Amino acid sequence: MTQADRAPDHRTDGRSGAPRILVVEDDLTVAQVVTGYLNRAGCTPVHASDGAMGLELARQMAPDLVVLDVMLPGLDGIEVLRELRTSSQVPVIMLTSLGEEEHRLRGLESGADDYLAKPFSPRELVLRVRSVLRRTAAVPPAPADEVLRAGDLVVDRTARVVSKAGRELGMTVKEFELLAFLLRNAGRVVRRDELMREVWSHDFGDASTVTVHVRRLREKIEDDPSRPALLKTVWGVGYRFDLPGAGAGGR
């Protein structure tokens, strides 16, 4: 029996209200360190040692966040993430080995919210987990201007729902936060480092994280992602969200 098999049902455990973090990691030493730090940070971590068990536990416990290793026996982390995204927008932080740029980009393109390269500081992982959880925590009702609009695109920051022409669009946490930030700053060029700081809460990071999330957003909100009318690239600087009817510029 694996550690995951012995995991209690944390929907009814004694730490009511503690964020439930699913850690899918086959290296038991790494898993023990990560779950230990998360536990001390006030979270309820549950460990799965392979991808299939990770998917099963994700269905059973409905975690608040998933820490997912790329290199797993059987189903690898990319396959697990893609399967998760068919039915859930749960925040996912991926763990990749240093230098695995292809895996990192595939993870972001498949719907990961963030990533850490091994070897990593467990304290930094906890900080990133807290950053994501802060953005997904329940908030009091917001005023009407918390509903942002750009033509037929509507972003309801209270309900955390995005719709286009009346059809709801599935958004990961970071996709939602990125879109809301850009829309709140419509018409202004926003640098990539500002987006890393404001959306990912990182003072520095890999610019490809922003690039991939922008590409994913365009695939969801643009009529023609190859010729974006809303989310423009300002070459050498960053991005600008143009409201319908606003002046052209960028691409």
Give a quick precis of the structure.
The protein is an alpha/beta fold and 251 residues long. 37% of the residues lie in helices and 20% in strands. Helix 2 packs parallel to helix 3 and helix 6 crosses helix 8.
Low-confidence stretches: 1-14, 138-142
At CATH level 2, the architecture of the largest domain is 3-Layer(aba) Sandwich
CATH class of the largest domain: Alpha Beta
Question: What integer value in Å does the Rg equal?
Answer: 19 Å
| Distinct helical segment count | 8
Which structural category do the helix and sheet elements fall into? alpha/beta
Question: What number of domains?
Answer: 2
GO cellular component, one term: cytosol
Domain Response regulatory: 20-133
Keywords: DNA-binding, Phosphoprotein, Transcription, Transcription regulation, Two-component regulatory system
GO biological process, one term: regulation of DNA-templated transcription
